[in-house]
Each structure stands twice: as C-alpha cells, then as structure tokens.
Design goal:
nine-stranded antiparallel sheet; 21% strand; alpha+beta; Jelly Rolls; cytoplasm; 11 helices; single chain; 397 residues; JmjC_dom; HSPB1-associated protein 1; Cupin_8
C-alpha cells in the first residue's frame, strides 16, 4: 500500500490526535529560513500586510479577536525585527493568521500540496498562520473536517481535549464553523484554578516543532499558542458527515443574525467575530434558501467537492496500519497530570486582576446567556431532529 494511502486511512480513522514527527515535506516555498520566506512575501506583495495586535495584559477573558487592534501595516521583515523576539518592554503580541491561499503571494505558496497525506483534491483550500510568541487562538473546536496542521517554522503549544469534555461552550463571539468555550487557558483565573485542574484527566498536549505535523480529529477542543515566532499551514479535510452538520450551522447563523439585525455596530462587533461582519444575510429568506439547498444536498448526498468517509476501519485494523508505517507516527496520550497543573500555574501568572479592566459589554449577561443557550449544540441538534420529523410526516410518499 502506498504511503499516502496509509496516511489517509490513519488520518480519517484516528480517534485521538496524531503526531507525524519530522515529516519529509518538499514544499518549495518553505525552503530556507523564515526570513527568506518573509523576504519573498515583501518582494511580491502589493501592500504590506496588516498585523493584528493583542495586549499581553488583556487577560481577564480569552483573547477574543474582537479585542485585537489592527496594526499599522508592517512589512514581513519589519514584523521579524519588531516582534521576532518578545522583549520585556513589549506590550502586545502580533499576528498575521488564518489567511487563505488566495490572499497570499503565489511565491509564498509554491509547492504546497496535501496529496502527500492522501488528499490531492485540496484545491488550494488551506490557511497560513504567522505570529509572534504568545499569539494564540482561544479554545474552540472546528465544526467541520479533520485538521492537518503542518508546523513550518518555530514552535506551537497545542492543548487538546476530547469532544465530550465539559468545557463551557459559547457561540459568542459567533464564527461560522467554530464553537468557542469560555474557559481562558491563556490566563486562567487563579481563583477558579480548581475547575481547570478537574479537566486535566483528559487533557492532551504537544509542543509542535518545525517539521512536525499534527492531526486533530473532528470536534476535538484545542487551545493553541505560539511558543516562539511561528509559521504553520493547515488544511481541513472535508467529510461526508459535514453535510449533516451544515444544517446545524445554518440554524445557528439564523439565530445569531436575528439578534444583530438592526442593532448598533458596537453590538455586532461584540456578537460577531471580525471575519463575520461582512457575512450577514440581507434578508431571512436568503438564509432559508441556503438552508433548503443544504437539506436537498444532504438528502441527495451530492456536493461540489470531494467528501471523505470516516470510521471505516476497526481500531484493531487501524493499529495494524499504524505499526506498518515506515515513519514516526504516534498517537498523543493524556498528558501527565502534574505537567498539566504546571502549565496552568505558569499561564495563570498572566492573569492581572488590577491592571486589566473588564471588557465592556453592550448586552446584558442575561441576553448573552440566552444566545448561548439557544445556540448550544444539543439544542440545535434537537431542533434539527424535530425539523426532519415534521418533514417526513409532510412527505406524501
């Protein structure tokens, strides 16, 4: 069996995160140093990119994207000079991340191809992430796909939890295809540390080094933080089960949009992630038309792109396949409990009670709880079941 076929089967059937240590990639654009890549970016880019800046002292809540400020445009080489190493006098971290392939200069993408993992039909549907030390993504899970993460330069800390872990899910801020949680792993409140410690019995962790690849199974929670200046590339493998989950996302989108229609920009900026601000349907009928198409696609099993099956191998067959690979592919294991507590203790020192003012909220806590309750995954799943029950009853056939 070819290596790419073996890796594809391992990726689609794994039930825990996988690490591919020092995977032999040959992606031309990443040959050389990070400085070389940044220099090519600057030579080809029409305008210098705008980096997000996030205050290191803003620690009372997760560092949501809505709290970040757009920096003055920096060239990539300026970014390396100013943020390549965070000194004591730095007040912010900086990042240029979640950039789709079509947003990037062609020379900075040359050779990127996920067919080596068994997925040749990726269609350049991948994202790049560049950030300084402490650049982080609040804990969340991705609604769709299996995530393949290639660490190109630097190191990132990944803290992961299985789907059933009792984290405090929220859809505020709302981002299509991401379910966030309220737990603040960047700076845990020392007064609430016991709750965080209780999660440690099912915490997985790795420091992903340059050259490593991480596979994140569907619906696994993850908090990600750069331990040094970091560049990575990721691809979400589209799955057949995503067609069903697309209906859930349309229901959530309709609920959230019903709350922001006609409200102030301040309200929208609080409820919506910045990348959703321009994606509000102008009329409810447009959203219902999208929902109807999603229902038809799910019932017909049709899609405009290749969708992959999962869980078609038994765990015994999967382990046999894993042992046959002539590479270092290893399942992550639950991290040692003492190591987990040390990580929490180190991060909780960032929590600044006196100097970090609470984030102003344009809505009441009751309103926020209502939105999160209406959009809770189990509530949405119940609405969908009721919809299909009624749909079947109305079908004359």
């Amino acid at each position: 069996m070819a290596l790419d076929t073996i890796l594809r089967d391992l990726i689609l059937n794994t039930r825990v995160p996988l690490i591919l240590d020092q995977f032999p990639l040959e992606w031309e654009c990443f040959e050389g140093s990070l400085h070389d890549w940044c220099e090519r970016f600057d030579q080809e880019a029409t305008d210098p990119p705008a980096f997000e800046l996030m205050s290191l002292a803003d620690s009372r809540t997760p560092q949501w994207e809505r709290k970040r400020a757009k920096a003055t445009h920096l060239s990539m080489q300026q970014f390396l000079r100013e943020y390549g190493v965070l000194e004591e006098d730095h007040t912010h971290w900086a990042a240029y991340q979640y950039k789709r392939a079509h947003e990037m200069p062609a020379n900075c993408l040359r050779g990127i191809d996920f067919s080596c993992f068994g997925f040749p039909e990726h269609g350049n549907d991948f994202s790049l992430w560049l950030g300084s030390e402490q650049a982080n993504t609040p804990c969340h899970y991705d609604t769709f796909g299996v995530n393949i993460v290639v660490q190109v330069h630097g190191c990132k800390s990944w803290l992961l939890f299985p789907p059933e872990t009792p984290l405090q899910s929220t859809r505020i801020p709302y981002e299509e295809s991401s379910v966030y949680c309220l737990d603040n792993f960047y700076a845990p409140d020392p007064g609430k540390i016991q709750r965080y410690e209780e999660l440690g019995r099912e915490a997985y962790h790795c420091n992903l080094q340059a050259g490593d690849v991480l596979i994140v199974p569907r619906h696994w929670w993850h908090y990600v933080e750069a331990m040094s200046t970091s560049l990575s590339v990721n691809y979400w493998v589209p799955l057949k089960v995503d067609m069903d989950l697309a209906l859930d996302e349309f229901l959530v989108k309709h609920i959230v949009e019903s709350f922001v229609k006609g409200e102030s920009d301040e309200m929208k900026q609080y409820l919506l992630n910045p990348n959703q601000m321009d994606d509000i349907s102008s009329k409810p009928s447009e959203l219902f038309a999208q929902f109807e198409r999603a229902v038809q696609n799910m019932e017909s099993g049709q899609s405009n792109r290749k969708l992959w099956e999962t869980d078609y191998l038994s765990q015994a067959d999967w382990k046999t396949l894993l042992n046959s690979v002539n590479l270092t592919v290893r399942p992550l294991e639950v991290m040692a409990y003492d190591e987990y507590k040390l990580l929490l203790s180190a991060n909780s020192k960032r929590f600044q009670t006196d100097t970090s003012p609470p984030e102003p909220s344009p809505i009441s806590s009751t309103w926020e709880l209502l939105v999160s309750s209406m959009c809770a995954p189990r509530v949405i799943a119940g609405m969908k079941r009721e919809f299909f029950r009624r749909l079947q009853q109305s079908d004359p056939s």
